[in-house]
Specification:
Oligomer: single chain
Radius of gyration: 19 Å
Helix content: 40-55%
CATH superfamily of one domain: Glutaredoxin
Number of strands: 8
Strand order of the largest sheet: 4-3-7-8
CATH topology of one domain: Glutaredoxin
Shape: globular
Amino acid sequence: MRKLLTYSLLILTLLALPATAAKLGEDGLHKQPWFTITFKDLKEDIAAAKEAGKRLAIIVEQRGCLYCKKMHETVFSDETVAKYISNNFMIVQYNMFGDEEVIDLDGETLTEKTAVRRWGLAFTPTIMFFAEEPTDGKTAKDSAVQVMPGAFSKNTVLHMFQWVKEKGYEGDEPFQKYHARKLNALQAK
């Protein structure tokens, strides 16, 4: 009887888990197979992304972040979103409270946590997008072409990545209008 009860509790526990549980790394952050591990030198990372025909984006996350988990399980797990991002962007993950060394675009060496504070980021997940060329003498905060704080729906995230790839930030259509136009087109189908 005791084995049956234990077995039943195990089954109920497994059924309660999300079907697409995000994988956790040793640092407690959720991981995607298409994330890139680098030395976190932003100039080098921008150059490496450009060489691969991609754009650099960094995602800042923290251990235990429910919004990060949601992003990984409901957005990054979507095949269309994952394929678009991995084909067009090099994503480097930063730990909001991490101690790994980071070299900012102005050459200053920091830890992940001091870089995140320097850049004024206070929410996870946050994605920072960069142009194809590094901006000399400026920090990542001053060089990012777009910052997306928060866990959003699949379409919002996909459209943000598309808007950045298309350099919408250089045009007259702000992201909100771009996103509304794309959503209307999806609904019309």
